[in-house]
Amino acid sequence: MTAVLKKVVVFLEMIKFSHTVFALPFALSGALLAARGLPGGRQLLFIILAMVGARTAAMALNRLIDAEIDAQNPRTAGRAIPAGLLSKGAVFFAILLSVALLLWSAASLNPLCLRLSPIALFFLVLYSYCKRFTALAHLVLGLCLAAAPIGAWVALTGTIELPAIVLGLLVLFWVAGFDILYALQDLEYDRSAGLHSIPVALGVNGSLWLARLFHLLTLALVGWLIVLVGLGVWFWVGSGLMTAMLLYEHWLLRGGDLTRLDAAFFTMNGYISLTFLAATAADVFLGR
């Protein structure tokens, strides 16, 4: 049992389970906005389970598909599969379980969620191959995470509406922006290995400016969402805080200084997603 628990801990570390904080708050925000209040307990449970299943499958797929690439990259050679801590068979089994959890949860929500789930799975698989042929992997990753709030909206309403699309787009550009920043640390390796990314295509300075543009689009979409849904003062306060955090994130990386990448990528983006959820919840429950 101890050996099994150790493997589970290694697996959770491999898929960065703690980073679920990046996408789950947006899924919950989508649910709150769609319901204009607290969703039913059953709906909320299956939204969370679908989110966990999708993200676990996505990260495990990425680690499995990229195992050989990771083994050659000094930054990633210590990951669980290339380091021999987990077998490919065990990871593949975990992927099957995660996909099953996603499909079961989607079916438990409504028929449209189930019909859309294969599309989500397609893009989860596509992302792991993108770096082999296109620099647009960052946008595909953003699209994958954008599915979280859109899926939550569909789970509650059974339809795809404009506010859900706007919410998904702001997540897409937010994720794509910070993923460009994250990819800067692999710039030299990606170039030498013939892999594609926006840093490879644009260099450090060009990547920094494109990430800034994407995050400016994110804030513009936040403003559009405020108008569409009729959000009030609490959400305006949260939006101001998110703007300040995005500015601070880019200030930390000014001049291409990657020594503060952990603070800019992990800490600030976690705070941004949680602030978005807190602002949404405050507006829904206190702004009446």
Question: How would you summarize the topology of this molecule?
Answer:
Blueprint: H1 2-14, H2 24-35, H3 41-65, H4 67-72, H5 88-109, H6 111-130, H7 137-157, H8 162-183, H9 187-193, H10 198-229, H11 233-252, H12 261-286
Features:
about 290 residues; mainly alpha; Tetracycline Repressor, domain 2; 12 helices; about 0% strand; globular
Quick description:
The protein contains twelve helices and no strands. It has helices at residues 2-14, 24-35, 41-65, 67-72, 88-109, 111-130, 137-157, 162-183, 187-193, 198-229, 233-252, 261-286.
Detailed description of the structure:
This protein is mainly α. Helices cover 78% and strands 0% of the residues. The protein has helices spanning 2-14, 24-35, 41-65, 67-72, 88-109, 111-130, 137-157, 162-183, 187-193, 198-229, 233-252, 261-286. The protein is globular.
Q: Count of helices?
A: 12
Can you tell me the overall shape? globular
**Average pLDDT score:** 90
Instruction: Give the uncertain stretches in residue-range form.
Output: none
Distance between the termini: 51 Å
Q: Which bin fits the share of residues in helices?
A: over 70%
CATH class identity: Mainly Alpha
Order of helices and strands: HHHHHHHHHHHH
**Relative strand content:** under 5%
Structural class: mainly alpha
- What is the CATH-assigned architecture? Orthogonal Bundle
Radius of gyration: 19 Å
Number of strands: 0
Structurally, how many domains make up the residues?
1
